[in-house]
Opioid growth factor receptor like 1 (Oncorhynchus kisutch), 322 residues
Amino acid sequence: MKRSFYAAKDLYKYRHSYPNYKAPRLPNDYRNLRFYLNKIPLIPDGIFIEEILTKWRGNYDKLEHNHTYIQWLFPLREQGLNFYAQELTQEEIKEFQSTREAKRRFLLAYTLMLDFYGIKLLDKSGNVARASNWQERFQHLNESQHNYLRITRILKSLGELGFEAFKAPLVRLLLDEALCRGTLPNMLHSTLEYYVYTIRLRSHRRSLLRYARQHYQPANTFLWGPPARRRGAEAGPGGRVAEPTPERERRGGDPHRACSPLTKKDSVGGGGGGGDGKGTKGYTVSTKTLQEGLSLVCSTILNVKLLLQCFLSCHNVILPFV
């Protein structure tokens, strides 16, 4: 199993509030806010928010098989599968967060989906627990993987619209059910790969990952952060290793390995070992450094060759020198 570079990149952008975000070219008519104020229906179904909140609760077939409402109930600053749904903007987010009626309905929409998944909201702090129908709904959720994408969207939208604190309790419950209780085993990968990384506060994110690391089996196959404490050249300040980033993963290296600083022995033009001992300026490089450099060059050539073979095979091209 490998980490998904796409997931890491997508959630990195989300947690950092979409750097280099470009607002949609369409005029900002606050369509998401007006939908939550019950002034316009969702498109293309023509259904108002009040009808969804009052008539769809407990109608699990409708919630399962209708695929156009989720983008309206949980809007984001990114395009979803319903192209009639409009992306959020910074201005609309601020207006939404200051509108009590919209926030009240948003919480009702959240509890609607929690009930669909067999979960109930306990208080205004976001704490959650199993609902009375949890056995039936967990069994369905474990076998309905398209709902895993919906949950990612719900978590992201909670953070966008002022309910960031609600995310960690939900992720903790799903992690506990998937990892410790075994009721949602199929959801474990999505929980670790996506849900945990929607949480913007690093301390909360790392707390959940430490909990997961303690219970994950086999322990040596745990791929997610926080980095394990190590000693030696790989460890940074405080004995910690650099956290994995999309850039490190893209390069194919060990995501937990930090770059070692140059030493005097390996420096160019220094007065370290390998010179005349008098600080003579020159290009002195240790044998070990040369060996490491040759090894790196050979490894790079091999990787390029493998990538070229993969590319050519995908295009049904065979060259004798590859």
Observations:
- Residues 231-243, 247-290, 317-322 have pLDDT under 50 and may be disordered.
- The two ends are 28 Å apart (CA to CA).
- Residues 68 and 166 are 24 Å apart (CA to CA).
